[in-house]
């Protein structure tokens, strides 16, 4: 019998190095501009978690947890689900209702 076709050995798979993700440089101190943005924008969020604040405001996770605790203590948001690893908050209905109803359009 004749030998198999030339180049019979399969080449070894070369492993990729993988993607390297840059380290996030999130703020660890809540400055005035970030605090103002937090106070204004948090009322428009439908779902508020630590992860949403970290992603949108570019702040540290521990800082986001503390900010959520302060907002809850001030009565601006309400805890919907409290778990040891995840807390979910929602803006208070009294803050959202005027925007939903848009009272300016009702007077016409």
From TrEMBL:
InterPro entries: Ribosomal_eS25. Belongs to the eukaryotic ribosomal protein eS25 family. This is 40S ribosomal protein S25. Keywords: Ribonucleoprotein, Ribosomal protein. Residues 9-18 have a biased composition (Basic residues). Residues 1-20 are annotated as: Disordered. It comes from Penicillium rubens (strain ATCC 28089 / DSM 1075 / NRRL 1951 / Wisconsin 54-1255). Coiled coil: none annotated. One of its GO terms (cellular component) is ribosome.
């Amino acid at each position: 019998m004749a030998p198999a076709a030339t180049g019979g050995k399969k080449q070894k798979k070369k492993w990729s190095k993988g993607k390297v993700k840059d380290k996030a440089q999130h703020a660890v101190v809540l400055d005035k501009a970030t605090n103002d943005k937090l106070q204004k924008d948090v009322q428009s969020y439908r779902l508020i978690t630590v992860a949403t604040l970290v992603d949108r405001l570019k702040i540290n996770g521990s800082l986001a947890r503390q900010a959520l605790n302060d907002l809850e203590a001030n009565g601006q948001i309400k805890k919907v689900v409290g778990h040891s690893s995840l807390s979910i908050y929602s803006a208070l209905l009294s803050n959202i209702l005027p925007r939903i109803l848009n009272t300016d359009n009702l007077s016409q």
